[in-house]
Write a structure and sequence with these properties.
Blueprint: E1 4-9, H1 12-23, E2 37-39, E3 45-50, H2 55-60, E4 66-70, H3 71-77, E5 82-87, E6 93-100, E7 112-116, H4 119-128, E8 133-137, H5 144-147, E9 153-158, H6 162-166, E10 169-178, E11 180-185, H7 186-191, H8 193-206
Parallel strand pairs: 1-3, 1-4, 7-8, 7-9
Antiparallel strand pairs: 2-3, 4-11, 5-11, 6-9, 6-10
The protein binds phosphoribosyl ATP and magnesium ion.
Phosphoribosyl ATP binds near residues 51, 73, 93 and 178.
Length: about 210
């Protein structure tokens, strides 16, 4: 049986990945809060615990055979080098445009300023509508930007909408729905076909819509 390395996304995706893996008897066997590399209860499977944004890189270069990360991450970074065979339907949220409540942006003469951790997704979204915008790249706390005049709108993930509401903001457009996906290295898909196919089938059974 081939050895399979799976790159897991730290944080909220990990929290929702663990119960799913547990159903397959694939719990990490080690301290996932500290270790970056953890064996599983199945001796043929081991895990890397890394940031969601790093998962595509590890899988693309074959440092991991497969991985779990958010569709937002895959859309932003372009995932042509990876197979994306499975939607896990976990860590569900949406990518939205949001603005301050009551401030309808985009009527001014200057270009709309968009603050976001997702410059590519934002650029494509507004370009598709024929809107020239100025993108301001941030690494977190996007909700702050319109409140202090850094931007007119933000493009960010929304789940319950509580964070927007707490900051006096509201969604003005939904760009797309987001959930976590399995990605697979293309060479591994060929070289370790049986093992990966078997895993994918088992995961598909426990990741209902
Ligand atoms: O390493 P990196 O910085 O990329 O990741 P991170 O440290 O931000 O990781 P983490 O744990 O936040 O997980 C990010 C991934 O979880 C995203 O890439 C999504 O695929 C997924 N996800 C699902 C979410 C949310 N739901 C979500 N609600 N990521 C972030 N949020 C934010 C949201 O933007 C808001 O600020 O959580 C806050 C609460 O949302 P509300 O709407 O419920 O208030
Ligand atoms: Mg975060």
């Amino acid at each position: 049986m081939s050895q399979i390395t799976i790159a897991l996304s730290k944080g909220r995706i990990l929290e929702e990945s663990l119960p799913l893996l547990a159903k397959l008897g694939l719990e990490p066997a080690g301290d996932i809060d500290r270790l970056l590399r953890v064996p599983s209860r199945d001796k043929n499977v081991s895990f890397l615990i890394i940031r969601p944004t790093d998962v595509p890189t590890y899988v693309e270069y074959g440092a991991a055979d497969m991985g779990i990360t958010g569709k937002d991450v895959l859309m932003e970074n372009g995932s042509d080098a990876l197979y994306e065979p499975l939607d896990l339907n976990i860590a569900r949220c949406r990518l939205s445009v949001a603005a301050r409540v009551g401030h309808k942006p985009g009527n001014g003469t200057r270009r709309l300023r968009v603050a976001t951790k997702y410059p590519e997704i934002a650029r494509r979204h507004f370009a598709a509508k024929g809107e020239q915008v100025e993108i301001i790249k941030l690494y977190g706390s996007m909700e702050l930007a319109p409140l202090v005049g850094l931007s007119d709108v933000i493009v960010d993930l929304v789940a319950t909408g509580k964070t927007l509401k707490a900051n006096g903001m509201e969604e003005t457009e939904i760009i797309c729905q987001v959930s976590s996906r399995i990605v697979v290295n293309k060479a591994a898909m060929k070289m370790k076909h049986a093992a990966i196919q078997d895993l994918l089938e088992r995961i598909a059974k426990v990741s209902g819509p």
